[in-house]
Amino acid sequence: MTNYYRMTIKKRSKRKTIVLVMICFMGILSLMPMLDRDDRREGASGPRAASEPGAAKDEFTEATEQAGNEILAGDSGVDALLFKEGVVQKGDTVMTLLGDFFSPAEIISLARECEEIFSLSRICAGHAFAITTQGDDFHGFEYEISAAEKLRILKAEEGFQVERAPIEYDVRTERVSGVITSNLYAAVDAAGESPELAVRLAEIFAWDIDFIRDIREGDTFTVLAEKRSRDGQPAGYGRILAAMFINQGQVYKGFLFETAEGQAHFYDENGRSMRKAFLKTPLDFARITSGFSRKRFHPVLGVNRPHLGTDYAAPTGTPIKSVGDGVITVLTRNNASGNYITIRHNNSYETSYLHMSRFASGLKRGSRVRQGQVIGYVGQTGWATGPHVCFRMKKNGQHINPVKLKTPPAEGVPQDRREAFTGLVSHLTTTLEQDTSQTAEAAQRQAVPAL
């Protein structure tokens, strides 16, 4: 493991310094009688001796005493705080990270104290951590749970103080825009941004735009996004405050708005929720290799038969998401479908995801899943000629074409929050709609004041 140490207080050689200060004082005291005799020889007009009560001290004595006091104040006997920072490596556990300071029994006790805040068994490789010591004693431990939050453990008089704390970033808001020439990833990259922004943008409009089938050359996007940095280094994106996507001439807008309950969701300019009952597709980006058909030539069996789903081709291991909230009713494998999952969403709808390479960990029959949750990964199990997912949907027990499904949106902005929402939309729209006719070459980032 690669670690480095950073001292916050420089250690001094305390005993040596104190001895030197005391020698200086003893030397000064030994000179006092001679200085006093010399002053008396000068007569009454000379300055009073420093040894007399109320007399002014000479400059050397004052400077020496002041320096001594500063050194002694700095050398209080308190050991320096030492920070050990690093990244959790594969195979590391809380026992390996803190084993130099605590016995196994003490670590078990610490784990119990942390359980309600964050289970120490969930410490993962690749996450940053920091250990603070004072001398040979443990002082504190921090572990970055996610990009937004960290676990903080501090030694207390009795036991430990355990809490979750936000990770602090420097944040600025920027306007980012681009033009589609081939796909969304390429357009975001051309705008100088990371793939994360493409994924976030696709998630906002996932209920209205199929980013596999619908986007065209010349489509445009604009985003008002928070960009974060730590210690002067880029650290990803914060919130997306507003976004606009023009797809085949149709304008879609989304505005982030927090309800009175503290829940933040995206709504269109009229206050309707962007979220609908089902996502358009179970993959963020892929291509359709075979659509819904009552009669299709089967590439493996070599005969015509119904294809009651939509095939999305993607590299093996691509995450597959549930298109809606629901309960897993089937999680199994067979010769034809390979690894597959069926989810019941309500009394009317159910969806199936076939040919997975593997299931997401922790899932089983009866598990509840939420919309957008990863349930498995693209594969080539069963009767398949290449890695893909066959996505199927039933309504009232009958197979339907999911591409043509239209579902109503979720609940919109509450009436008592409409005025605040309208003000926010008016404020953000002015910036969002600037220069919407920009070409791909001119669609560059423009900084805007923090909101």
Strand content: 25-35%
Alpha-beta content class: alpha+beta
- Give me the Rg, rounded: 34 Å
Low-confidence stretches: 1-26, 28-75, 438-451
Name of the CATH architecture of the largest domain: Roll
Distance between the termini: 41 Å
Helix content: 10-25%
Number of strands: 24
**Overall 3D shape:** globular
Averaged pLDDT, please?
79
What's the topology here?
Blueprint: E1 4-7, H1 14-42, H2 59-74, E2 81-87, H3 94-98, H4 104-114, E3 128-134, E4 137-144, E5 149-155, E6 160-166, E7 170-179, H5 184-190, H6 195-204, E8 220-230, E9 233-247, E10 250-258, E11 264-267, E12 287-290, E13 293-297, E14 304-307, E15 310-313, E16 319-321, E17 326-334, E18 338-344, E19 349-359, E20 368-369, E21 374-378, E22 388-395, E23 398-400, H7 418-432, E24 446-447
Antiparallel strand pairs: 1-2, 2-3, 3-4, 4-5, 5-6, 7-8, 7-24, 8-9, 9-10, 10-11, 12-15, 13-14, 15-22, 16-21, 17-18, 17-20, 18-19, 19-21, 19-22, 22-23
Cofactor: Zn(2+)
Biased composition (Polar residues): 432-441
Domain Csd3-like second N-terminal: 172-292
